[in-house]
Amino acid sequence: MSARSFRSVGWVASVGAAALGCYMLSLQVAAERADLSGVESRIVRTKQEIRDLQTELGTRGRLSQLESWNAEVLALSAPVAGQFVANEVVLARLETPSGELGDRAQLRMASAETGETAPAAAPQPQARTAAVESTAAPAQPVVRQASLTTAPAAASANVPARAPVTQARAETRPAPVRTTTPARTETRPAAARTAAPVRTAALLDERTARQIGETARAESRARPPAARPIAAVRAEPRVRAASTDKD
Amino acid sequence: MATLAARTEPFRIVEEQPNALALTYQRLMMMLLIFAGVTALIVGRLVFLQLFADRAASASAVNPLIPPRADILDRNGVPLARTIDAWTIGIRPGDAIGDHGEVAARLAALMPERSEAQYRAMLASNRNFIYLRRRALPELVEAANAIGEPAIVFSREPERLYPQTALAGHVLGWTDLEGHGVAGMERVLEARLMDPAHRGEPARLSIDTRVQAAMEAELAAAVTAQQAEGGTGIVLDVRTGEVVAMASAPTFNPNSAGRADANALYNRATMGVYELGSVFKPITIAAAMEAGVVTSPAQRWDASAPVPIGRFRISDDHPLGRAITVPELLIHSSNIATARVADAMGAERMQQAFRDVGFDETAHIELNERARPLWPSDWGRARVLTSGFGHGVAITPLHLASAYAALVNGGFWRPATLLRIEDGRAPQGRRIYSEQTSLRMRQFLRMIVTHGTGRRGEAAGFRVGGKTGTAEKVAAGGGYSRRVNVSTFAAAFPMDEPRYVVVVMMDAPQGTEETHFLTTAAWTAAPVVSRVIARTGPLLGIIPDADRDIDTSELLPLVASAEQ
Question: How far apart, in Å, are the Cα atoms of B179 and each of B182, B221, B251?
Fold first, then answer.
């Protein structure tokens, strides 16, 4: 008897609990929904605010205003034809061939390297200077063509990027390369392959960029374009080698 | 008694037990029904919330972001027209409680466009509501609120704002106080901008704000320096017919169009019809090449003596006194030789040549502010000869830009448009010149800039080609005035692969020291074109290259004699 009556109480309690649970759930949903709509309305308000601010910014920075500021203060002018560089060869032409051989030997090409090839290429800096010294006068243009950038810190990592250069050199004048740096011929193809795709990532470091800028300014004042065809012509094989390595 | 009572007891129990059981079941059933009902109610509520409440909430959340009128953007997404909630200051005279004199004095100090007496009259009037200032700045609203007069009311109303102010005002037009477009693209796109289905997405124009700004700045500088009546500049994409920039000086600010001068509201690019002069010559020559009248660039046309027609004589400013080749004709801009070419063409073919480039029709552009060309009704010999070098047919500068686009783009004429065209959706166009003629014209136009009257239109590295045109304006009393010119330079660049046509026209420029007191196009309009191209070429994706150019070497021998 008591068990039966308790059972019914149990039923009542469980149904009640279920109903309460449902109600709580409903309440919870309603609360969440209210929160959500609150967030949504905040998003809307923020979007409107962003739009207002964009409008204000656009109005304050309107082109006619910028134009008048430029006329009064900045005096910037549009870039002229000579200030556009079409490719690396033209960029290389901007370098001034100043100083002695020793100065130029420090200039190296900058490039972002993968790093794996660095240990293999580590002994190469000495080999390279040896090449420079041993092939004194005839080798000079070759060295110049390779030297695009100062990057002494990245000297060891730099070497793979020079691989295309050595390749070009090997094609034109095979004898001195082979005699001075015999090890290089073996490591070259692999290094070239890894280095080539990333070379464009960092063509110049800041100092060289500044240097080039100064040179460009100096040149635009007094322009002797005939001074550099040699560098341009010599640099071409290197570029070609790099591009063939890519595929 | 006791036994009796004892007997009845079990009977009662037997009697009552089924009742109690039924009652219990009944109660249980009731409880079950109640709980089931409550559960069903809750489930129903949940379903209801899920089905209906969600949609209603999200709809109300999106609505405020859709402006009452769609934005207008340029081709790169820079906003040119937007609708903002601007503060409006009004006054309800009936609610005024403060001292009228003091309130009026403070209002006059804040908004000096009306006098103190006017404000006092407003406060005393029996009108319901008066606007004091629409589109007020928040600082002004704050200051007006600080007066503390309850009669001064503030509200936010949607207002059309042109963030770039005067930029492309003639293209955009403006809206009235109710927010309906009354001019320019605001009027053209009225239905599209107000359509609830499309209001959320902005309309895109073909204008490039940067190019437009450069064109307006250079044009305004030239108009001011040369004290011209006005000027206009157009940059047109030759491949699609999109108008990248369209400027007309003087300009106006569409934010306050009502206060602008009527002269400033006049869009010279599409409303002004002018006899544009020598810029017609390339069109005449191209048509003559198509018709087989000009068979070879080396063909010589007599320019030794003026051509008499009736009372007039067609003569050259700088007579060459000999027979000249076609490139020479264009380089020296010989009226005599062009008249002879036009004569050889005849009235029918000359008319057809101009009809091909749409000179007999209203300018092909969306704007309502456009003019019909002055297309002559009689085509006598005098008309034919003079039309060859741009007299007698008056067109808008936009007509000219479209015609030059056809000259250089391989021979396809397309209507100009102010709406952005998606890549690859350009209209096919109508072929009016052969590829061969177009190539030849490009060489000619380039040579005019390298060797002829258009030297000042050159922009280093951009391979500009173009033709100058200096026409005499019809004077007020009739007849042409020698001193008052319409100077036009119509150019395209880069000539080895034309992408854009740039037309600049100066209306009645005055000679200055800088132009050696000349008012010809070479000194007035061409330098503007040169500067605009130098400034905007890289923005339009054309990198100047001093090492590239169109090959004109085969034609140079034909003018070499004149050079020496």
Answer: 9, 33, 22
